[in-house]
Specification:
The chain is an alpha+beta fold. The protein has 17 helices and 22 strands. Strand 19 and strand 20 form a beta hairpin. The radius of gyration is 36 Å and the shape is elongated.
Length: 589
């Protein structure tokens, strides 16, 4: 029974189509020639709604308008937009001056006409001219201009220069039509049209048709302007939330890349940071908020600020991510982010890496081979699943560690494993200098940058600093440790020709070693690092971090850290698996 019903339904549908065709033919036969022209024009304008504004790109929309008008409306067409519109501004109200700066956006013509006329090249900016033309007059008043038949003396008013006027005359241009592009009462630009040869000149009907076409196109142009402005605002906010410069880091050269997506709703979420840590160590962080737009950009700013604060406390990477997870749970947007943190220690050229659901870093060795680092992957930030595990590895000098966000490997058509392998193959085929200077497009899969933003950090390790700019000594676990530390410091500062800092540094190291003996069980090693500043570090096995105490005049002790606080630029402490490190930094004269 169901088969008979389907057959009957199909038969009725075909019969209905035949009836509709007969009715359309009958109505068409009954139309007058004028009504048929009006019907064709209406259909043409409806087609404009489909052919123009297919993208939210100003250049593409302008070219679609010019192409649609030729040859149906004109033999040649050009579209110009105000420079202020291209900068994302509102446009201009017709002011009567007509002296606005405009830029050529599109040109279309029948075969050979454009070469004869030589219009302004696409992208060329035209400054206001003293010579008044029909174009400038229309831009000043906001009203269209119709010249059905150009008289000899009028070519100078159609063209902006005498040479352009001669080319119009020689090409046989005999009719001119110009319509401003106005949306919401604001002037955005203009489109002008010409006819040549034996074709009839423009009429009032053509003017009405062009005005309606320009009205439709102006809406699309305005939409593209608003779209581009929104994208620029979000991209600018995102860039302002990222580091403006990479700090100088001992033993490590870092280059960074950031590319926003073409979609304004896709901007926001990818971030990175490079922060110097006490003792010459460097923290490299990349993250990706799992959303886009202004909300993601705001979350990016919060997470980066919290990350820098936690890194300033010199926490281990795994503890830093755990604290960051706790902070992310309080975000109003309830957003989740992936994050990868790598802390580089120039003393032994080692990395400590921790991942919160982030793609693995890529290690490129000096011989050009590339492989992914197997880092324990924890839950994303904000998921509420902690703790995180770290991996420590030593790399040879000249190695490159590549940290990135998933925008570098994301593709709409291929699996993530395929893209990871493609990234590894491309990186392994580059030399060290080429990898440091490469663009994201050199490593990303084809088309990936068009729909997602991406961040990449390339960290190049240099020779280990130990024995040159960094010195490490093991201290005795008894009362002679302070004297030994002072001797090591004075001899090394003389070698570095920094004898002026010896007195203060000896006093600082004596206090640090004394605290390690009194409260930390015994001192472990003394580390002296020279880069932008002079850093002194003393390790011990005690669990408690030191802090400045309030002392009275009668107290015999408790002023060591107060003294260090006054003599040094800054000081601090951090926990280690075996205890803690207390450090102090001095400015170098």
């Amino acid at each position: 029974m169901s088969g008979r019903v389907d057959v009957g339904h199909g038969r009725k549908q075909r019969e209905g189509l035949r009836v509709a065709r007969r009715l359309t033919a009958a109505l068409t036969q009954g139309l007058t020639p004028r009504a048929r022209v009006a019907r064709d024009q209406l259909g043409w304008l409806n087609e404009a709604s489909v052919r123009i504004g297919t993208t939210l790109d100003l250049l593409t929309t302008s070219q679609e308008l010019a192409d649609f008008a030729v040859p149906r409306l004109a033999d040649g067409a050009a579209v110009d937009l105000l420079e202020s519109v291209l900068q994302g501004e509102e446009g201009e109200r017709p002011s009567g001056s007509g002296r606005s700066v405009k830029r050529a956006m599109a040109v279309a013509s029948i075969d050979g006409l454009a070469e004869q006329l030589e219009p302004d090249k696409v992208g060329e900016i035209s400054a206001p001219r003293e010579r008044e033309t029909y174009f400038s007059r229309a831009m000043a008043t906001g009203r269209p201009v119709l010249v059905g038949r150009i008289r000899p003396h009028e070519y100078g008013q159609v063209a902006p220069t005498d040479s352009a006027a001669d080319k119009l005359r020689q090409a046989g241009v005999h009719s001119y039509l110009m319509v401003p592009l106005i949306a919401r009462g604001v002037l955005l630009g203009a489109a002008d049209f010409v006819r040549v040869g034996s074709r009839p000149g423009f009429t009032e009907a053509d003017l009405a048709l062009a005005t309606q076409l320009a009205s439709k196109a102006a809406v699309y142009v305005d939409n593209a302007r608003l779209y581009g402005r929104e994208r620029e605002h979000v991209a600018r906010l995102q860039r302002n939330l990222l580091p403006h410069a990479t700090p100088r880091t001992p033993g490590l050269g870092v280059t960074s890349r950031y590319t926003p997506t073409a979609d304004p709703l896709g901007v926001g979420g990818d971030w990175f940071d490079v922060a110097p840590l006490p003792g010459g160590r460097t923290a490299l962080v990349v993250g990706d908020v799992m959303s886009h737009g202004l909300a993601a950009a705001a979350t990016t700013g919060v997470l980066r600020a919290v990350t820098r604060t936690l890194m300033a406390l010199d926490m281990t990477p795994e503890r830093m991510l755990a604290r960051l997870d706790l902070a992310a749970r309080d975000l109003a947007e309830d957003q989740v982010a992936t994050c990868l943190c790598a802390v580089y220690d120039p003393a032994d050229a080692s990395y400590t890496l921790v991942s919160a659901g982030h793609p693995p870093p890529l290690l490129v060795t000096p011989d050009g081979s590339a492989s992914y680092v197997d880092v324990p992957v924890g839950a994303p930030i904000g998921a509420g699943v902690i703790p995180y595990d770290s991996r420590r590895m030593t790399v040879p000098p000249g190695s490159r560690l590549v940290l990135y966000t998933d925008g570098l490997i994301k593709s709409r058509t291929e699996d993530i494993d395929v893209q990871l392998e493609r990234l590894r193959a491309r990186a392994s085929g580059m030399g060290p200098a080429e990898l440091d200077a490469c663009a994201l497009s050199d490593l990303a899969p084809d088309g990936s940058a068009r729909f997602d933003e991406a961040v990449m950090l390339v960290a190049a390790t240099r020779r280990p600093l130990a024995g040159t700019d960094l010195c490490i000594w093991d201290l005795p676990a008894n009362g002679s440790a302070a004297g030994a530390a002072r001797k090591f410091v004075r001899e090394q500062l003389d070698t570095w020709q920094l004898g002026d800092l010896a007195d203060v540094t000896e006093l600082v190291v004596s206090e640090l070693v004394g605290n390690a003996l009194r409260y930390g069980g015994a001192p472990g090693h003394l580390r002296l690092l020279l880069h932008d500043r002079l850093v002194v570090e003393v390790s011990d096995t005690g669990p408690d971090l030191p802090r400045i105490q309030h002392t009275s005049l009668s107290d015999e002790g408790g002023r060591g850290l107060q003294l260090i606080n006054m003599l040094c630029r800054r000081w601090g402490s951090c926990r280690t698996p075996s205890g803690k490190i207390v450090w102090a930094e001095q400015d170098i004269p």
